[in-house]
Specification:
single chain, mainly beta, Jelly Rolls, binds 6-O-phosphono-beta-D-fructofuranose, isomerase activity, GPI/OXD, EC 5.3.1.9, isomerase
Length: 189
């Protein structure tokens, strides 16, 4: 017989549309991040400030009702809308887990990339439907839409991972990801 520190979550069947922004079913919290939520992250601060007049949605994170607590494995689908700020692709804020926890991403639609940084070495994993990106413990991670349609991916992570956003503001992410003449252009941070 299992014992639980919190009320147990029942096994569940979760459905979602792979190509459109729609809630998962059953659905949990939905997070919407606009340009104004991405302060201090894009290289061209003036262009970022100009974008605030419109304050467009950059990405949305739709979660299932699995709580972010030890032992659970929450899931979410992130949709990053296409676009750039002075050539720098739309991206998530990026964070380091506050505990040494890994995470798995699965590309669902569109194209993008998973940028990882351990404080010394950046890594870039190109993502597309059918690609699994593995984030080992101790690597900050950010997702980037490098295409011209929404980029969507599933994330599965230990519920007690935690999100440290200040780490990224202090340390950067190793690379910045720009749209270049030959496609994706990774520039030193
Ligand atoms: O927390 P950020 O950096 O805004 O990005 C959201 C990402 O974090 C997660 O919530 C969990 O790592 C992902 O589902 C999502 O892509």
């Amino acid at each position: 017989m299992s014992t639980f520190a919190t009320p147990p979550i029942d096994p569940m069947r979760i459905t979602f549309e792979t190509r459109v922004t729609a809630p998962m079913s059953p659905s949990g919290p939905v997070l919407t991040r606009r340009m104004s939520d991405l302060k201090g992250l894009f290289a061209d601060t003036s262009e970022w400030e100009r974008s605030l007049a419109e304050d467009r949605v950059v990405y949305e994170v739709a979660s299932t009702p699995v709580p972010e607590i030890e032992g659970e494995l929450p899931q979410s689908i992130t949709t990053i809308h296409p676009g750039t700020v002075a050539g720098e692709f739309h991206m998530t804020k990026g964070h380091m887990h506050t505990r040494p926890r890994g995470e798995i991403y699965l590309g669902l639609s569109g194209v993008g990339g998973l940028l990882l940084f351990d404080g010394n070495r950046p890594e870039w994993i190109p993502m597309e439907p059918g690609v699994i990106g593995y984030i080992p413990p101790g690597w900050a991670h950010r997702s980037v839409n490098t295409g011209d349609e929404p980029y969507r991916f599933l994330a599965v992570y230990p519920g007690d991972s935690g999100h440290d956003y200040d780490w990224v503001l202090r340390n950067g992410m190793g690379y910045r990801v720009f749209s270049g003449p030959a496609g994706t252009d990774l520039r030193p941070f």
